[in-house]
Structures are given as structure tokens and as C-alpha cells.
Amino acid sequence: MKATTSRALDLVTRRQAVLTLGAGVCLPVGAQAQATVATAATEVPALAKAFVPYFPVGAAVTPGQVTVFAADFIKKHFNILVAENVMKPGLLAKRAEGRYDFSQADDIVNFGIANGMKVRGHTLCWHQQMPSWFFTEGGKDVSREVLLGRMEKYITDVVTHFKGRVYAWDVVNEAFVFGEPNEKIDQNNMRMSAFRRIIGPDYLEFAFKFAAKADPGALLFYNDYETQNNGKLDAILTMVKEFKRKGIKIDGIGHQAHCTVAHPSIESLEFAIDEIAKLGITQEITELDIALNSNIMDSLVSEATPDLLAKQAVRYAQFFDLFIRKKKEITAVSCGASTIAHLGCVTGRGSDSKLR
Description:
The protein is an alpha/beta fold. It is 42% helix and 16% strand. It has helices at residues 3-6, 11-19, 30-43, 47-50, 63-67, 71-77, 89-92, 103-114, 144-161, 194-198, 203-214, 230-246, 266-277, 306-325, 337-341, and strands spanning 57-61, 80-83, 118-125, 136-137, 140-141, 168-173, 219-224, 252-255, 258-260, 282-291, 330-335. Strands 1-2-3-6-7-8-10-11 form an eight-stranded parallel β-barrel, surrounded by five helices. Strands 4-5 form a two-stranded antiparallel ribbon.
């Protein structure tokens, strides 16, 4: 594809649209926040509209953002919603097995539907933010059979509750680990989560089977960070091939895309996208954000300098150019929660010539 095609959006519109995601300081509070978001909702070109020829653009949001100060901003700039936290097991079922609080999740889903947005479900099985009762009984790990039963009930109940309203689910999140010396892993670099430890490596297969049975019409994703890592990419490819061999439904891979101003290289992510595409499944960018630091393991910088902010904005433009080039493979791009938390960044930088 020619470079001019990948930059088909009007220069100013595209520049300002990408800056909606670009670097900034934390969202101001109180009246200043209201004014900042109001400006962003009216003066900045709509991000989702700018990328209509290529893919929908989503955001991880909180119930407060869709019901209070950011509703107009979200309605203008995004056409996919993802719940940042309130659809995770630790919040949906924190009290006891079979006892759910869907109120906050329903607020987000209903907001999305009322405004013509699609909603992604995040996430059904994760090693974090699980309710305390899920893996134990009487202070000890439950058996494989008990945990499989709890997992099936939870997935069935939750997916059924949102059936027809959620178009896709991150069924399993972050099951593989590479290059993290403090994480316990098995011989195949699978994270030794409670799911893996009690059930075994086939817990992934069961999770996808349970989700497919609960809502055959939903797209089912495996979601992970650092998907361009060679080891993790190989593990994902092997998993997908094995699922396909066994007839287990898996529709896509979610690239979280937690990035920095220096990591990863555009080329490495493009290679991962191309390799996964060979397996005939879809892909989404699910949690895109770009930190101001260079080291992926160190999220702190002393100051958000103009130079760092410019580098961050350029990186957003570079990544979006990649996603446009790969529009056949990448069917949606959603932004991480930290991006929406920094709504203050969208004003005042639209004429930066460095974004050409």
C-alpha cells in the first residue's frame, strides 16, 4: 500500500484525532476537568469518524465516565466500549458463587447500546482480580473438578447475562509469560496461575468451550501483552493451532499493545500480526497506550516534557499507520484505560508540525 494511502485522512484532522490519544498530563479535577472534556467533545475532530474507512476505535471506560463528565467525549470519539474493571470476576462475583452484581457493567453496556456502540467483554479468566472464594474452600485449594465446575458456572452465567449485547469476549487473559523472572511458569512458559496449578494447562480449552456454549454468536479472543515477543508469539500460535486441531472455537487474538516511546518496534508488532493472520483468525488492538518512558519495565518519568509528549504523539501516529496498513487483519483498535484517564491531552497541540 502506498504511503499516501496510509495517510488518506486529512492531515490536520488526522493529526488532531491521533492527539486525542497522544500524551498528556493526568486529567484535571473538578471544574477544570469539566471544561477540558467539554472542549475536547466539541473542538477536536472525532477519532472514530476519522478512522471509519479502516476500523472502529474503542476505549476502556469506567461507569463514572459514561454517566458523568466524559459521556459526550466518549460518544463523539469512540464506537466500541470496554469496561476497564467492572466486568472482571473480582467485581462481578466478589461476594459468593452465583451471586452477581451486574449494575455497573450494565451501565456501560446500556450506554454503549443506546449510543450505537459495540461492547467488548473483558475478561472471563485472569490470574488477577479474581474473587477470594473462587479457588479455595476451608483455606485450601479446591480440586480440579470443583474449580472446573465453578469456572463453567461463572462463564456460563456471565456470558449468558450479556448475550446479544456483547459482541466479543477476552476469554483468557495473559496465560503465557516470557522474560519475567519473578513469575512462576511451567515448562511451556504458561503462567502458574491458580487456574493452571489446580486444573492444568487444559484450563484454556475448557474456558473457550464454556464461553462458546454460552454464546455461540460472540467472538472469542485470547488477550495478552507483548505479543510481539518471539517466545510468546510462538506460544500463541501453538495454542491456536491446537485449538483448531481439536475443533475448539477461538476467533481472534487481542494485542494489548502497552507500549512506550521506544518499545516495541513497529516492525516486531507487524511481524506478529502477519504470523497470526496466517492462521485465519481475526485480531484486535485491545488496550493501546504509550508510556512516556523508554523502558517497558519502568513506568515513571520525572517530567512530561514537551519533547517526550511530541515523541509519544509521533509513536501514536506510527502505530495507527501500521494498523491502517493492516486493516484487513486488525478489525478494531481500542485504547487502554490510562489513555482515557488523560483526556486533558487533547487540546492545544493540533498544529505541531512534528506530527507530519
